[in-house]
Each structure stands twice: as C-alpha cells, then as structure tokens.
Amino acid sequence: MNTLPIAPIVRCRRAGLAGLILAISAFAGPAPAAAGPRLDRVNESKVLRVGSPGDYRPFAIKSADGYSGHDIDLIEQIAKELGAKIEYVPTTWKTLLPDLQADRFDIALGGITRNAARIGVADMLPGYAPFGKVALIRAEDKARFTTPDTLNQPEVRVIKNPGGTNEQFVMANLKNAQVSTHEKNAEIPALIAEGKGDVMITETYEALHYARTDPRLFAAFIDAPLTPPNTLGFLLPKDDADYARVMHFVWGLLEDRGVVKQAAQKWLK
After folding, report:
1. In this predicted model, what pLDDT tens digit does every residue of 105-142 receive, in sequence order?
2. Cβ contacts of 92 within 8 Å, gap of 6 or more
3. Model's pTM, two decimal places?
4. CA 85, CA 90: separation in Å to the nearest integer?
C-alpha cells in the first residue's frame, strides 16, 4: 500500500484548514491559468470596442447607416469568432494612439499604416493591402504633376488631414508648398476636385477609390509611389498578452479561410 500522502495530511491536521487546502492542491496539480484582464472583459461582456476615425475609404467610412468598408467586414468576422458584438467608438487620427492607451477601445482600424512608431507603443495585426503614398489631384493636372519635385513648389496648394502618416509625409517632403489642414479627411477629395486645393497626399487605395468615383480626380504616382511599399494593419493595445495572442490567432483563421482575400476582392479592386 502506498503511504506517501500520510505525512502531508498529518501536518495538515496540525495546521488546520489552511494546511489541508495546501496539501490537497499539491496533489491536485497546478490551478488553471486565468486569462488576461482585457480578454476576460471581452469574454464576459461579449462586447468588442472598436475605434475608428471612420473617414478613410475604402477601409472604414461612417455614414448615417453606420460603418462600412474593407476593415469593417473583417472586424465583424473577428467579433463573430469571439462571440462578441461590436461597439464602435469614434476617434481621430490625431488622438488614435492616446485613445487606445486610455482604454477607450480594444482595437482600432480604418486604414492604419504599420510603422515602427506605432508598433513601439502598441501591437498590430499582420499587414494587408500593400500600398505606397501617392497624390490625389485633378484630372486636368495630370501633365502638371509628373515628378515628386513638381508637388513641392510654392504655387502648389496641398491639403492634409491632421495626425496621421499622410501629414508626416507632407510636413517632411512638401516644405515649399502651400500647406493647409482640413480636419475631416473624407472631405478633402471634394475640395481638390472643386479647385480649393491642388494635391492630397494619401495611399494607393484611397486615391484609386476617389479617382474611380469622381471623374474630376486622378490618382498620380500609382505605378511609382512616393514612398517604399508598406502595409496597413489593425491596432491593438499592449496591456494583455493573452488578448493579443487570441486576436492574432483569429486573424490567422481569417487568412486561412480566405476571408481576408475576399474582403480585398470586394473593396480593393
């Protein structure tokens, strides 16, 4: 007969209930690990809070009917895998990272460029939609803007939105141009088309979208972008490794099932 457990139990009788619990735990094995606090909150509330500026076609645009776009289709599939409903939280490009760090939402999307500055303070899901910076101009100006240097002239009026990588590009590379700021990114293409500005610096897919939908506009530098290629990605907080691991896993499922490819075929062609 095996008598190994006797000594611990005898000690437990002397130590009382607390000792008995410790002894039983020792033979029962380690307790199951708890999930991180953000993952626990999403699992318990069944709500995934999604932040988006909602002004960047074709990735995420807010209208009277709600949100739509490439990224919206994908986040709906992610929420479905988590068994959660989506609560959209408005944000801006200027406040995107501060709002994420202030725990206003659990994930951010809507055409967010993957770069070292963002990944240095947050996490990002794998990249999608390879792009470069291009210029949205009027179709009648195609012959006027043919090289990067032609954009950086004193008579050129550039309109930028604040807080994102497009603004960073403008401030670093178009210092000789007349630069103005317009808070609502989705309104800038119409300003260019109406002649209230000459150039909007944006990414491949946004420029192509507006050039397709408004014949007054033209997407310049599509074949030779102004920057090296990059990708977009969904932005995550860094405060819960369990949550991040689950989100990366779910994204992998969507890629394996062809969902990411289907979204690209629907919105980016």
Report:
1. 999 999 999 999 999 999 999 999 999 999 999 999 99
2. 53, 162, 163, 183
3. 0.79
4. 16
